[in-house]
Amino acid sequence: MARDHLYHREFFEALREHPLGERGWVQHLKNIHDAADAADAAPSRFVRYLDRERRCHPSDVWSVTLTGTYRAGHHYKGIFNCKTPFDLHLYSLLLWELKPRTIIELGSFHGGSALWFADQLSLLHHGGVVHSFERFAELVSPRAEHPSLTFHRADLNDLTSLDASLFERLPHPWLVVDDAHANVCNVLRYLDGFAKEGDYYVIEDITSDFKSERYEEIGQTVDALNYLVDTSYTDNFGYNLTCAPNGWLRKMG
């Protein structure tokens, strides 16, 4: 990673005017770089789903980010988008690293999330499309419009409502975001039939299933299909501090 720009003379001259002082900022930046280098060199970035601990830390953050405490709003361009600030940042990192040609969102709701993804792709200047699927398509806001965004009506409990020919022609790499919480394992198996090595599949909102048979079923399915958890995303802010704990999955082949 190129970091030479942090050592420019003008940069440090400006730091002398900062209350922390030049020396304090030098140490601060060194700590950041050391942590980044350690993360890059870690041998266990990709791990088995069922080898991960079933916990989030710190867990009390959700009382603020998901319940509306302190007026925590979840909107994008005036359209409801229920993604935490942590996850918006994590998705930004993944979009830059993966540079997906296709984003598949399961569960559109009002369309704010799909619109955010489409805008982010357009900023990367490499092209890409977003396809978002919703059983109750009438919920999608008419203001959720973008040239690269398409909404589809589909019932994930009925996989015949999905158009296989669409998935066959969508370019890779893919980022699949499951925010529908319906028929999770069967949908994963279905879409895996079109997946390629290096694609990402994010399963959101499974925290409440940590102690359930459903969690075990998801883990067994993920293992069988050869996905591994990418801990650089699950643990970026804390252990599983994301709305997709243990759910940032990379197709390994």
Automatic annotation (TrEMBL):
One Gene Ontology term from the biological process aspect of the record: lipid biosynthetic process
SUPFAM superfamilies assigned: S-adenosyl-L-methionine-dependent methyltransferases (SSF53335)
Domain of life: Bacteria
Molecular functions (GO terms): methyltransferase activity
InterPro entries, A to Z: RNMT_CmcI, SAM-dependent_MTases_sf
Name this protein carries in UniProt: Putative cephalosporin hydroxylase
Organism: Chondromyces crocatus
